[in-house]
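Per reviewer request, we include the raw input and output of the structure prediction for the construct analysed in the revised manuscript.
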Amino acid sequence: MQDLLNKERETEVASSEQTRNAVTYVPRFDIVETKEEIVLYGDMPGVEPEDIDVSFEEQHLTVLGKVAPRHRDHKHIHGEYGIGDYHREFHVSETIDVEKITAELKNGVLTIQLPKSESVRSRRIEVGGA
């Protein structure tokens, strides 16, 4: 879990990185951990579910996608929402049940649930007496 927190950036809006001839945006995420799972909440305003690719391989969660231009028929005075490609990667140190990972986009928020495998969940051990 600490690996996830170490990757977080402390910025006001999604930051961008210049790569080759294009800009790649780095969306912001909140990360929550419970006994059963790790949940990520990412800001994805204006993104459609078909424009998001979420993958998990060898303890790396990767979120890729594209934000299409909005308000094409209006004159922009100022814009803070990133338009273009975005990429975010997290290293997950917990053992995750890969078959049970889910992702949902609702109201501009991407929610990714990473259930922990039974073997790493904390549990209470009953102590017997003689």
